[in-house]
Predict the structure.
Amino acid sequence: MNALHERIAARIAAQGAMTVAEFMALANAEYYAARDPFGRAGDFVTAPEISQVFGELLGLWCVQVWRDQNRPSPKRLVELGPGRGTLMADALRAAKLAPEFLDALDVVLVEASPLLRAKQEELLKGEKVQWQERFDSVPNDRPLLLLANEFFDALPIRQFVKTARGWCERMVTRAGDKLAFALAPVPVADALIPVDRADAPDGAVYEMCQPALAIVGEIARGVAAQGGGALIVDYGYDAPAFGETLQAVRGHAFASVLDNPGDRDLSAHVDFAALAAAAEAEGASVYGPVSQAAFLEALGIAQRFEQLASHNRATASTLWAQLDRLVNAKQMGTLFKALAILPKVAPRPPGF
Ligand code: SAH
């Protein structure tokens, strides 16, 4: 039993079972606060850590969206959950091809973990960058370009299970020395469950990520009012789906969700249909989701890799392996998806 397990058990003893979302929030706050989880020696590898091309293309996506809206200035570039800062470093380097984009540009990284923030400061020293712990602390007073890769999958989800009594919330409770799942005895109000899910069969699981919906709503409000565009890349499903997707990953392998909280990464599939609806409700236009493969290929990822390979034949086989990981349907190409949020008046963004 680790220290966080003891804290959670003590809280359950005092206050009763907690929601899956409360558990996930506590576990992931501890997880990200204490370690750099990325790379071979860590728990998982993300797209910007696979290749510099990923961040370069996303940076150029922002430049193009900004150009398409007649180059408003000043403007702000925000990244949610920047990890090691690799994506932003690659995006800013690529954006140097368009120096006028970098003029009068505020760069804001939204990061809750002090340890990862220190990594980002180190990698981005020399760049003018600010930090916020939460997106709602970023002012909404200028056009917003926003990037988020594998941020939303880390936000806490609630789980509801359809029973003969109605939809009951799944809770985390104690079973002896262990933590265990249990259903709340009293069903939640029907209004909490979207109508398109209402007649699911008994045993169906519905997952809801309230912080994701709130953040996407706020992004859409900002973009609709001030201009700009947001690009969300993550793993997830594009149509309403049932089934539990909460997972724990440690050392590049699946692990149990409830054991040793805080020493493994908890994440869940992103419900892109729900994010799209939340953005549209705020008056923004939504594009996608499209597969990561389709998105990156439309942005010219193959040509960029060709160019890198032609400069250095010795590393060509490494480069092709990186490209394969990003776009092959059996790797990240299909499971990962891209969604864009733009003002209604803006043209269709590149890649969609
Ligand atoms: N975008 C990076 C890292 C993804 S991991 C990449 O692709 O490599 C998730 C990131 O989101 C980490 O930086 C983590 O510290 C941050 N994060 C997770 N939950 C957060 C929250 N509630 N608020 C702010 N940042 C959070």
About this structure: DSSP finds twelve helices and 16 strands in the chain. The mean pLDDT is 96. Residues 31-156+208-342 form a domain with the Rossmann fold fold (CATH 3.40.50.12710).
